[in-house]
């Protein structure tokens, strides 16, 4: 034990008893700490003065560099979230260097000053302090930040600033939000070296965290229209992917964020899928007939689905709390529409009650509004059942993700001529499309869905009822 | 005029003597008034820029025209509503805010036939656009704060999933509360038989009031209680969407990512509490050199440490917002700052929204004061310590009183109500002067701030002038069992007193439920109770009230108990 210590710390014999007191404790943890403490230069840490304190501000240094300190003496006054408090030293020595100056802020546990045992070590301590303050942002960052390529270390600010400085002709041109400024100060990030990604090019707290190499914390109380109790966002962000040089990062638009959020949320619902081939010859014939009157295939399918839903209310229901069925009073068919870079689901309300022509007209209005981004919330989030059609692209079958808050979604493929054998063994060619429904198995079971699809298929195969 | 005085009831004699009494000269009166009220003025964020404002009376006109259809009396007088005289009413109150309501209630109790004139909605600022809806928002922000404070929740052993909110539902809560309180107020007036006359009220002559377009009524006494509107300094363009006043903010139509709050008085402070809890970042713009002017410096420092520093708030002090342009054409709200003293430009802020909380301006234009030779001072109706309106000759106008924000003595709802009650007492022939130093004030942040009486610097100044000693006692919420049980040990109570006779000069509290705790101190000041006697009062254990118990007990008073503790009356 002693020899081990001696071999690592040559100056052991000369050091005072107080200094090495921890070595008397026979536990591996303090012992290891001793090994890592180099020679006789100690760090003075930002203490945790209260249970809620996460950072402290140096009000004033009572001692200055070069002062001789004895154990128990007050060295520095720290302002915590609660009060100003004197901080004492636990060791004798010389205050070799002040790492965090007066008025600056450091997180709890970060070194704020260095204590040398003898005058000889002061120079060494000073050099160390310099290194510290240069790289202190990465130092103070949580441990994992070390291994992956630390993205843009703020220390290498040499390259980015010139353009930034040029853009900013006045000293006030760089706009950072209040919290971003606070974070920048705390993590010693040079705001002038950053390019803001927020509104109007603002530097946001996220920008600072990115620059300081801190994994983004769960954003504070973000909320607007989202009443849905977000089931504690899965910690997907924990894994970091290697960055491929030259890639561009494009932040989500609001619509894309909403899609992303809904998709992640959908993972919490147990779903299953049932497919069904539907003959469409009769439907196609009807479509040709009503097309001149402005009826679209979307309207036809929505109407058919709505009529089938009217007979199978469970497929139109919702499971809100995992404990009950919520039977929706109206049948509102949401139809997925791709809109330049986004996805939105305008809703045909009371699709079972409106006639085909009104429905087509309504649909036309909704699509126009969606393109102009003028849909009102109730026009895109009141759906009770979703219809998604990729048939026009030649997709024969696909599988849809159930949007949160609905019981089922129908994915419609292209209608294709298919050779079929009838009961008597005669072959014929009929147009068939594959319909695939994804449903919430907490409320909708296989037989329910099968029965619903059967009804839907009957309606499509005998579409006269659609026009009534 | 004189004849009417001599004809009126027994109370008239006292009124005559009062009007005969020599009234202070106009200018000395104002000098005196300023020295009495600076705390309240600064507390309300009203500063020197109030000079030379122009009020738009469009709101009043619009309200009047809207209400013209309903000019009929809302309620019929009940049989017990006073005795008829040669006047239509014994008392007419212009303005049905909290002040007017308080006065009306007390007047009916005293048997006066009373009418109240309102050109807008019953309840005034407090109920519709002030204290009441803001408390609803603050109730939400307090809970949000708690739920977001993981550390706090963990300390209780509670686990809470991410807290979120629905803006519309929060906003509805505030609106519903306002309309509920409004209907309570209206019903209480109707139930007592107070006539509610709809339309803007104007004084057309002595003891004569016009309401609506052409309804003229006479009253033995008139109280002006028209209140105030948000004060918007010039250069600031309020569009009601991105540049707003408290009137708009209380509707919570949107929660901006970043909002600048101009003025860090209690209105600004409360809104910063709401907005930061809902996820906004806040920048304060304060014209004075420090935030939270008007609070006791020690309380202010602690409040800043708890309410400002750890939150997503930064601030610019010593600067004026000289020009604020609302967001438009895809550009953010821009705020041009100038140094408050040198007027030099101090840069520009670009934010998502700006809330103007620079105080409130009296709402007194169109009152017809010129008909009775009264001139407003910076919009405020000049009054003496009995709320009697003073005319341009420095004489008090008989039978005309002004209470509440319109007189600017102390711009607080409960102060207006107290002034109203004081006036009714006088009208009924009982001299009464309201002691303003016993009126408490509160700021409903989390935690709350409350105060009554003088701040420490004010007390020391007064002590030096009058030659007495001042002592200060302090207790912390950290030592209070109930506060610790709630994990809310953050807080301070401060007592400023005279050690020679035990008089309470001021009490300031920052901590959990401070607004509810202050009343023990304010009642003591109002009743003239001395600390040495208060020490013997018993407080239930464990309650937050023990913070004050401790405070009184820690005071070192040289005087003996003034009166022996009373014997129990009933066994």
Automatic annotation (TrEMBL), chain A:
Keyword Acyltransferase: yes
Domain spans labelled Peripheral subunit-binding (PSBD): 175-212
UniProt GO BP: pyruvate decarboxylation to acetyl-CoA
EC number: 2.3.1.-
Xref: InterPro entries: 2-oxoA_DH_lipoyl-BS, 2-oxoacid_DH_actylTfrase, Biotin_lipoyl, CAT-like_dom_sf, E2/Pdx1, E3-bd_dom_sf, PSBD, Single_hybrid_motif
GO cellular-component term (any): chloroplast envelope
CDD domains listed in its UniProt record: lipoyl_domain
Gene3D superfamilies: 2.40.50.100, Chloramphenicol acetyltransferase-like domain, E3-binding domain
Lipoyl-binding domain: residues covered: 41-119
Tree of life domain: Eukaryota
Chain spans, region Disordered: 126-169
Keywords: Acyltransferase, Lipoyl, Pyruvate, Transferase, Transit peptide
Pro residues bias spans: 141-164
Requisite cofactors: (R)-lipoate
Example GO molecular function: dihydrolipoyllysine-residue acetyltransferase activity
Similarity remark: Belongs to the 2-oxoacid dehydrogenase family.
Protein name: Dihydrolipoamide acetyltransferase component of pyruvate dehydrogenase complex
Species annotation: Actinidia chinensis var. chinensis (Chinese soft-hair kiwi)
Lineage: Eukaryota, Viridiplantae, Streptophyta, Embryophyta, Tracheophyta
TrEMBL record, chain B:
Subunit (UniProt): Homodimer. Part of the plastidial pyruvate dehydrogenase complex (PDC) containing multiple copies of three enzymatic components: pyruvate dehydrogenase (E1), dihydrolipoamide acetyltransferase (E2) and lipoamide dehydrogenase (E3).
Keyword Transmembrane helix set for record: no
Lineage of the species this protein comes from: Eukaryota, Viridiplantae, Streptophyta, Embryophyta, Tracheophyta
SS bond partners: 126-131
Cofactor: FAD
Physiological role: Lipoamide dehydrogenase is a component of the plastidial pyruvate dehydrogenase complex (PDC).
Sites where the protein binds FAD: 135, 201, 226-228, 405, 411-414
Listed EC numbers: 1.8.1.4
Main location: plastid
GO biological process, one term: 2-oxoglutarate metabolic process
Top-rank EC class of the record's enzyme: oxidoreductase
Active site: 541 (proton acceptor)
Gene3D superfamilies in alphabetical order: 3.30.390.30, FAD/NAD(P)-binding domain
Listed GO CC annotations: chloroplast stroma; mitochondrion; oxoglutarate dehydrogenase complex
Listed name of the protein: dihydrolipoyl dehydrogenase
Reaction equations catalysed: N(6)-[(R)-dihydrolipoyl]-L-lysyl-[protein] + NAD(+) = N(6)-[(R)-lipoyl]-L-lysyl-[protein] + NADH + H(+)
């Amino acid at each position: 034990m002693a020899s081990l210590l001696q071999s690592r710390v040559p100056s052991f014999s000369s050091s005072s008893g107080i200094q090495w007191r921890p070595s008397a404790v026979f536990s591996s943890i303090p012992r290891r700490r001793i090994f890592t403490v180099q020679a006789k230069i100690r760090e003075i840490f930002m203490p945790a003065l209260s249970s809620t304190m996460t950072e402290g501000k140096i009000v004033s240094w009572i001692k200055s560099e070069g002062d001789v300190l004895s154990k128990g003496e007050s060295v520095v006054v720290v302002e915590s979230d609660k009060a100003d408090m004197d901080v004492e030293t636990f060791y004798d020595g010389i205050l070799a260097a002040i790492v965090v100056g007066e008025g600056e802020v450091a997180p709890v546990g970060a070194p704020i000053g260095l204590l040398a045992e003898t005058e000889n070590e002061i120079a060494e301590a000073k050099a160390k302090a310099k290194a510290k303050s240069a790289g202190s942002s990465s130092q103070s960052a949580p441990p994992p930040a070390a291994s992956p390529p630390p993205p843009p270390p703020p220390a290498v600010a040499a390259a980015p600033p010139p353009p930034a400085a040029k853009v900013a002709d006045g000293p006030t041109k760089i706009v950072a939000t209040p919290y971003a400024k606070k974070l920048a100060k705390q993590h010693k990030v040079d705001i002038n070296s950053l390019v803001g990604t927020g509104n109007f090019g603002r530097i946001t707290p996220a920008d600072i965290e990115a620059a300081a190499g801190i994994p983004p914390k769960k954003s504070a109380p973000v909320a607007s229209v989202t009443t849905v109790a977000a089931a504690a966002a899965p910690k997907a962000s924990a894994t970091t992917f290697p960055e491929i040089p030259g890639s561009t990062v494009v932040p989500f638009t609001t619509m894309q964020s909403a899609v992303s959020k809904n998709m992640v949320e959908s993972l919490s619902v147990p779903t299953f899928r049932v497919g069904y081939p539907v003959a469409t010859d009769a439907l196609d014939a009807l479509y040709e007939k009503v097309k001149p009157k402005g009826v679209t295939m979307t309207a036809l399918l929505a109407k058919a689905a709505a009529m089938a839903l009217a007979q199978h209310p469970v497929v139109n229901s919702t499971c809100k709390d995992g404990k009950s069925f919520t039977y929706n009073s109206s049948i509102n068919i949401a139809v997925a529409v791709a809109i330049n870079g986004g996805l939105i689901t305008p809703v045909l309300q009371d699709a079972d009650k409106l006639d085909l022509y009104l429905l087509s007209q309504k649909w036309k209005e909704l699509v126009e509004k969606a393109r102009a981004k003028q849909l009102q919330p109730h026009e895109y989030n009141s759906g009770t059942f979703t219809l998604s059609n990729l048939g026009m692209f030649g997709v024969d079958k696909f599988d849809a993700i159930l949007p949160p808050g609905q019981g089922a979604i129908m994915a419609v493929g292209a209608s294709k001529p298919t050779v079929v054998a009838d009961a008597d063994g005669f072959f014929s060619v009929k147009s068939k499309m594959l319909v695939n429904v994804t449903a919430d198995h907490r409320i909708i079971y296989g037989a329910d869905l099968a029965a619903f699809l059967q009804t839907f298929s009957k309606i499509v195969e005998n579409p006269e009822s659609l026009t009534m | 005029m004189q004849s009417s005085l001599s004809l009126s009831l027994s109370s008239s004699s006292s009124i005559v003597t009062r009007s005969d009494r020599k009234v202070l000269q106009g200018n000395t009166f104002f000098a005196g008034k300023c020295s009495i009220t600076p705390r309240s003025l600064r507390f309300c964020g009203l500063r020197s820029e109030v000079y030379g404002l122009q009020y738009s009376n469009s709101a009043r006109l619009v309200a009047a025209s809207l209400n013209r259809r309903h000019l009929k009396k809302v309620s019929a007088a009940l049989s017990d509503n006073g005795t008829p005289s040669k006047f239509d009413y014994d008392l007419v109150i212009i303005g049905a805010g909290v002040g007017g309501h308080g006065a009306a209630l007390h007047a009916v109790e005293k048997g006066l036939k009373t009418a109240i004139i309102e050109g807008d909605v019953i309840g005034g600022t407090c109920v519709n656009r002030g204290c009441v809806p803001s408390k609803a928002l603050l109730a939400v922000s307090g809970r949000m704060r708690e739920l977001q404070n993981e550390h706090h929740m963990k300390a209780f052993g509670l686990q809470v999933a991410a807290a979120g909110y629905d803006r519309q539902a929060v906003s509805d809560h505030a609106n519903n509360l306002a309309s509920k309180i409004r209907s309570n107020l209206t019903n209480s007036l109707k139930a007592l038989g107070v006539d509610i006359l709809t339309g803007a009220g104007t004084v057309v002559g002595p003891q004569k009031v016009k309401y609506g377009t052409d309804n003229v009524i006479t009253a033995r006494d008139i109280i002006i209680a028209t209140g105030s509107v948000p004060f918007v300094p010039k250069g600031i363009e309020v569009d009601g969407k991105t540049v707003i006043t408290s009137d708009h903010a209380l509707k919570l139509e949107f929660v901006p990512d970043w909002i600048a709050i101009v003025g860090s008085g209690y209105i600004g402070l409360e809104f910063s509490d709401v907005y930061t809890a809902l996820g906004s970042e806040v920048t304060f713009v304060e014209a004075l050199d420090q935030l939270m002017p008007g609070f006791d410096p020690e309380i202010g420092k602690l409040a800043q440490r708890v309410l400002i520093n750890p939150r997503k708030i930064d601030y610019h002090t010593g600067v004026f917002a000289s020009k604020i342009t609302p967001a438009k054409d895809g550009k953010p709200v821009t705020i041009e700052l100038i140094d408050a003293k040198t007027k030099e430009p101090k840069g520009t802020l670009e934010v998502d929204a700006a809330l103007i909380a620079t105080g409130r301006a009296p709402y007194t234009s169109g009152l017809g004061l010129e008909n009775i030779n009264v001139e407003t001072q910076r919009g405020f109706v000049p009054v003496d310590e009995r709320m009697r309106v003073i005319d341009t000759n420095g004489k008090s106008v008989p039978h005309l009183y002004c209470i509440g924000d319109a007189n600017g003595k102390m711009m607080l709802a409960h102060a207006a109500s107290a002034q109203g009650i004081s006036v009714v007492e006088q009208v009924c022939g009982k001299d009464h002067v309201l002691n303003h130093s016993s009126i408490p004030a509160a700021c409903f942040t989390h935690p709350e701030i409350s105060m009554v009486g003088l701040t420490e610097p004010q007390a020391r100044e007064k002590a030096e002038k009058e030659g007495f000693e001042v002592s200060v006692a302090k207790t912390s919420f950290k030592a209070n069992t109930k506060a610790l049980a709630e994990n809310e040990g953050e807080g301070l109570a401060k007592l400023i007193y005279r050690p020679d006779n035990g008089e309470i000069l001021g009490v300031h509290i920052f901590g959990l439920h401070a607004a509810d705790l202050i009343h023990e101190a304010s009642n003591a000041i109002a009743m003239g109770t001395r600390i040495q006697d208060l020490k013997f009062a018993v407080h239930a254990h464990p309650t937050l009230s023990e913070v004050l118990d401790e405070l009184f007990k820690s005071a070192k008073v040289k005087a003996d108990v003034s009166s022996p503790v009373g014997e129990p009356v009933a066994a």
